[in-house]
């Protein structure tokens, strides 16, 4: 299951992403917003909590730039949220960083690219190996 959330700036993007993923057979947990003005940190927290608590496999957050959502989500212990705006970033944040939430900016990229990024993010597996050591170092920093 994929948790997805947005603020008002990302609402239309979120609808497109949900349609795309549903057509591909993914189960979606839509955690808002529904187009109304909202406080994005609350949406980011809810998506992050569902990913960390293993209710969802991965998360997707969308706001105007993706920056606010990524900052907020990364405050939750165990989250590795990555702002993705190109193919390389979406692929390698999974391969090397084992990111569990991708963030996108609805005002910075087009929907066609966004759907490609969602696909590569969800379909790319973590490489492990030497990268696991680095993830462990990040986790140790979190636990200080």
How many domains in all?
1
CATH homologous superfamily heading: Sugar-phosphate isomerase, RpiB/LacA/LacB
- CATH topology, by name, is Ribose 5-phosphate Isomerase B, Chain: A
Which whole number gives the mean pLDDT?
97
Q: CATH class, anyone?
A: Alpha Beta
Q: How widely separated are the two ends?
A: 31 Å
Explain what this protein looks like in three dimensions:
With 144 residues, the protein is α/β, with parallel strands linked by helices. The chain has a single domain, classed as Sugar-phosphate isomerase, RpiB/LacA/LacB (Ribose 5-phosphate Isomerase B, Chain: A, 3-Layer(aba) Sandwich). It contains six helices and five strands. The protein has helices spanning 11-23, 40-52, 67-73, 87-95, 111-123, 130-142, and strands at residues 2-6, 28-30, 58-63, 81-83, 101-105. It has a five-stranded parallel β-sheet with strand order 2-1-3-5-4, sandwiched between helices. Helix 1 packs across helix 5, helix 2 crosses helix 3 (67-73) and helix 4 packs parallel to helix 5 (111-123). The radius of gyration is 14 Å and the shape is globular. The N and C termini lie far apart (31 Å). The model has no long low-confidence stretch (mean pLDDT 97).
């Amino acid at each position: 299951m994929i948790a997805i959330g947005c603020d008002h700036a990302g609402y239309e993007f979120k609808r497109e992403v949900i349609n795309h993923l549903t057509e591909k057979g993914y189960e979606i947990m839509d955690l808002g917003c529904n187009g109304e003005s909202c406080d994005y940190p609350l949406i980011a927290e809810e998506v992050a909590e569902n990913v960390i608590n293993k209710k969802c496999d991965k998360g997707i957050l969308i706001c105007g730039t993706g920056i606010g959502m990524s900052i907020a989500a990364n405050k939750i212990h165990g989250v590795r949220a990555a702002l993705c705006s190109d193919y390389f970033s979406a692929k390698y944040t999974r391969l090397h960083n084992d990111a569990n939430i991708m963030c996108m900016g609805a005002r910075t990229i087009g929907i066609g690219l966004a759907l490609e990024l969602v696909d590569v993010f969800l379909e790319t597996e973590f490489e492990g190996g030497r990268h696991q050591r680095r993830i462990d170092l990040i986790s140790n920093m979190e636990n200080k």
